[in-house]
Amino acid sequence: xxxxxxxxxxxxxxxxxxxxxxxxxxxxxxxxxxxxxxxxxxxxxxxxxxxxxxxxxxxxxxxxxxxxxxxxxxxxxxxxxxxxxxxxxxxxxxxxxxxxxxxxxxxxxxxxxxxxxxxxxxxxxxxxxxxxxxxxxxxxxxxxxxxxxxxxxxxxxxxxxxxxxxxxxxxxxxxxxxxxxxxxxxxxxxxxxxxxxxxxxxxxxxxxxxxxxxxxxxxxxxxxxxxxxxxxxxxxxxxxxxxxxxxxxxxxxxxxxxxxxxxxxxxxxxxxxxxxxxxxxxxxxxxxxxxxxxxxxxxxxxxxxxxxxx
Length: 310
Hints:
The chain is of the alpha+beta class. It has 9 helices and 9 strands. The strands form 4 sheets. A 3-stranded antiparallel beta sheet has the order 7-8-9, with no helix packed on it. A two-stranded antiparallel sheet has the order 1-2. Strand 1 and strand 2 form a beta hairpin.
């Protein structure tokens, strides 16, 4: 059979024979693959990502058909570009991307297509990847893109005392290579945020009850996880709430009844009085725990008896 029909047909026949000769074993193995299905994305030290996954036969077959359709689209894009540049003499060697690159780009296109579908669905919302980069790092990255030396007199070396403020990452703290971030800023959207020494942005006063939109983003920009000591819940999974309750009445001097309320009255909806907390630790404030941010932007959490949690 192998000599007559070729490897692909022989391989299919052999696999079918194995499955039929051990139906119970095949079914059990597939059920095990389904029961242990998993997927994960892990970022390496070189900032690259590794995606691994495993599943059962039907789920994998469905995903493969979708992936293959997107892969065909990536191939058509490369082939059309090669034909446009080289005409009928175009060859596979002249395609812009390798097979491996197209496979990854097809997978990326599936993710983005799913995000667009989610945004247009009832109750859905646009999924945005926010990259936070400090001004000095952004300038140096742009200089490299322009072929300039970022350490020349125009920019100067990064001051030592600003190293602690260095940042180029997603909201949750996943690092992004600065040059890539700056390059994509040329075709993406840029929101310029002025950050004070205490990492606080924007002031909306008491005109708004809840932290939403820019106010919530302003609180998240200065943090990567829940402010509670030892808690690593990513900031994008945290609730944004008032350190001093919004309903807290102003004190006799016009200020809030406690610290952290910002200027102009207690419980204001502004980043000075906002912090990211996971659902569990946000509820602790109802049991006498308090949170304070000092002038340097450092968080301090206190038990009901006034002692600090470190």
